[in-house]
Design brief:
- The protein is mainly α and 347 residues long.
- The protein contains 13 helices and two strands.
- It has one domain (10-36, 56-346).
- Helices cover 69% and strands 2% of the residues.
Length: 347
């Protein structure tokens, strides 16, 4: 994409859209990918960066199956999301405070506070709530594949809103991803997906696209960990208030959670959802991005979809149909081609 003179952060949006994609049902740290130098084969940090990236992708991929386990045990999506976001916010609070040491003035800036508020309410709370609601009626892999088309939406937004004409490869990738989405949705097939679940998944996809655009703001002084931790805190507060006033149904149970033929206490599932699939995934994602740089991180991040489908198969017995798997492969290919197009522009 060509950078528009009116919007210095515009060109970074599409880059962020493929840097550890998917999202914020996971609220991925695309902002962390801008830190550090890109890894090269001679860089001894390459191996550790790849390891961190794979761990992060795997941890994020577990969120869908564990959320489904809680939902099947009687939890509402609102309660599951609130528990996950709140635990992650508490776990990341020390890291965020450490990043603010000597820079407390950043929180006195109204622009930064507004950014944290919008980021937390939409990119964190809204997106994760939409994803968790989607997996209540859709297969985890299908919901995530729908969400993974967000980079194509970012490309379209930057073209229409900021007049940043994408590279031909970028357009080709967007078309491939859109074709893959049609196969995942089985528009022309005999299988009928739950329309409500599809709409929630599409809402999560729009939330991820919004997150990518916000995360690409190159003018912000907020460290990546502060944006993530602060966004999680705001998201937890917003969800909590929505639950207290009765806007968001909040139901929890002490029924055991069944996953992969095994039973576990509800609190174990909640701890895994908050500390492993959120806080742990964020921290390892930051570590990976700072070692690998945005380009390599964006490609390794694609492994989240593969891991999510694998975990859903192992833990929930879910496996997309052959047509949907082909569609998923096309979505991944499309995202890669979009990224290659942005690489051509950046050169």
């Amino acid at each position: 994409m060509r950078a528009n003179g009116n919007d210095a952060s515009g060109a970074a949006a599409a880059s962020a859209a493929t840097a550890t994609a998917a999202g914020p049902h996971t609220a991925r740290l695309a902002t962390g990918a801008t830190a550090g130098n890109p890894a090269t084969p001679a860089n001894p940090r390459l191996a550790s960066g790849l390891l961190f990236a794979l761990i992060s992708a795997g941890a994020f991929a577990l969120s869908g199956p564990f959320a489904r386990g809680l939902l099947d045990a009687g939890w509402t999506p609102g309660a599951a999301v609130t528990a996950r976001v709140s635990l992650a916010a508490l776990a990341l609070a020390p890291v965020s405070l450490l990043a603010l040491r000597g820079r407390w003035h950043l929180l006195a800036d109204r622009g930064n506070l507004a950014k944290l508020a919008v980021y937390g309410a939409i990119a964190v709370a809204g997106t994760q709530l939409a994803y968790f609601t989607a997996v209540a009626t859709l297969q985890v892999g299908v919901a995530l594949l729908i969400e993974y088309t967000a980079p194509a939406i970012v490309v379209l937004w930057m073209w229409l809103r900021h007049r940043q004409r994408p590279h031909s490869l970028t357009l080709l990738g967007a078309v491939i991803a859109a074709g893959g989405l049609l196969l995942v949705l089985q528009i022309f097939g005999g299988v009928q997906l739950d329309i409500t679940g599809v709409l929630w998944a599409l809402g999560a996809m729009l939330g991820v696209a919004f997150y990518f655009v916000m995360s690409a703001d190159t003018e912000t002084e907020l460290p990546a960990t502060v944006l993530a931790g602060g966004g999680l805190l705001v998201g937890a507060v917003v969800l909590g208030i929505a639950g207290l006033v009765g806007v968001l149904p909040m139901t929890v149970t002490d029924a055991p959670v069944e996953l992969g033929g095994a039973s576990m206490p509800w609190w174990v599932a909640v701890l895994v959802l908050g500390l492993v699939t959120a806080a742990g995934a964020y921290v390892t994602g930051i570590a990976a991005a700072r070692r690998l740089g945005p380009r390599l991180t964006s490609f390794v991040g694609l492994s989240e979809v593969v891991a999510a489908v694998l975990f859903a198969w192992l833990l929930l017995g879910e496996l997309p149909s052959p047509v949907q798997l082909v569609g998923g492969a096309l979505i991944l290919v499309g995202v890669v081609v979009v990224r290659l197009g942005e690489t051509r522009i950046s050169r």
